[in-house]
Amino acid sequence: MKIGIAADHKGYVLKQLLTSTLVSEGHKLTDYGAFYLDERDDCGDYIIPLAQALQRKELDRGLVLIGNGSGGVVIANKIKGVRAAIIHDHFHAHRAVEENDINLICIEADKTNFLTAKELTELFLEAKFEGEEINARRLMKVMALERIR
After folding, report:
1. Domain range spanning residue 10?
2. What pLDDT score does 132 carry?
3. Which of 62, 78, 134, 148 has the fewest CB atoms within 10 Å, measured from its CB?
4. What's the total number of domains in the chain?
5. CA 105 to CA 103: how far, in whole Å?
6. Edge-to-edge, what's the strand order for the sheet holding 104-108?
C-alpha cells in the first residue's frame, strides 16, 4: 500500500518508529515531514502536501501524528477528496473506513504510545469501505458538497 506519513514536533518520535515498522512490512511510504525536531513547526506544512497527494491519488492512505489530532483533521478535511478523522481507539480505527471511507487518520501523539499507534495504523490500513447503501448515500452527499466548495 502507498502511505503518506506526517508529524509535527509532538509526533516526530512516534513517526520515526512507525516509519521503520511500515517499511519493514512492505508498504511504500512517503514521508512529508517533519524531518527534524523543531518545537516551533506548524503541522499544516506537512499535512497539506500529504492531503494533496491523497487528492491526486498518489497515495492510498494518509497517517498524521500530531498533538491532539484535531488541527490535522481540520486541515486535511479542507482538501477535496480527503476524509480525515481523529482515531484514538481500536474500534474506530477500522470502522471509520468501513462506514465513512476515511483515507487519512490523525493519531493523538500526546496520548498514544508506539504499540497502540502501530495497532491503530494496522487496523486502519487493513479496513475496506463496506459500501452499504446508507453509507454510500452519505458519502455521495459529502462528495456533492465538495463539488460546490
Report:
1. 2-148
2. 85
3. 148
4. 1
5. 7
6. 28-31, 2-7, 61-66, 104-108, 84-87
Question: Which CATH number covers residue 20?
Answer: 3.40.1400.10
Amino acid at 98: E
Residues 6+ apart with CB under 8 A from 125: 1, 3, 27, 61
Q: Interhelix angle for 90-100 vs 114-126, to 10°?
A: 20
Give CA–CA dist 28/88, Å, rounded: 24
Rounded to whole angstroms, the Cα distance separating 22 from 78 reads 27
Q: Which residues pair with 54 in a beta bridge?
A: none
- What CA–CA distances, in Å, run from 130 to 86, 127, 139? 20, 9, 12
Nine cell digits for residue 88: 484514538
What is the tens place of the pLDDT at every residue in 64-117?
A: 999 998 999 999 999 999 999 999 999 999 999 999 999 999 999 999 999 999
User: CA-CA distance, 149 to 146, in Å (whole number)?
Assistant: 5
